[in-house]
Amino acid sequence: MTVTIKDIARKAGVSRTTVSRVLNDSGYVKDETRQRVLKVIKELNYTPSAIARSLSTNKSNTIGVIVPEINNPFFGEIIKGVGQVADEHNLNIILCNTDDDREKELKALKILKEQRIRGIIITPTYAEDQFNSEYLSTLENLGIPVVLLDGHVKYSNFSGIFIDHVKGAYDATKALIKAGHKKIAIINGRKNYKITVDRFKGYKKALNENNIFVEDKYVFYGDFEYESAYKITKHILKMNDRPTAVFVTSNMMILGSIKAFYEENINIPRDMAIIGFDKIDALNIIGMNISFVNGPTIEMGKVGMKMLIDNLDNKKSKEEIKRITLFPKLVLKGSEKFINNKCE
Amino acid sequence: MTVTIKDIARKAGVSRTTVSRVLNDSGYVKDETRQRVLKVIKELNYTPSAIARSLSTNKSNTIGVIVPEINNPFFGEIIKGVGQVADEHNLNIILCNTDDDREKELKALKILKEQRIRGIIITPTYAEDQFNSEYLSTLENLGIPVVLLDGHVKYSNFSGIFIDHVKGAYDATKALIKAGHKKIAIINGRKNYKITVDRFKGYKKALNENNIFVEDKYVFYGDFEYESAYKITKHILKMNDRPTAVFVTSNMMILGSIKAFYEENINIPRDMAIIGFDKIDALNIIGMNISFVNGPTIEMGKVGMKMLIDNLDNKKSKEEIKRITLFPKLVLKGSEKFINNKCE
DNA sequence: GTGAAAGCGCTAACAA
DNA sequence: TTGTTAGCGCTTTCAC
Question: Are residues A194 and A137 in the same domain?
Answer without folding.
Answer: no
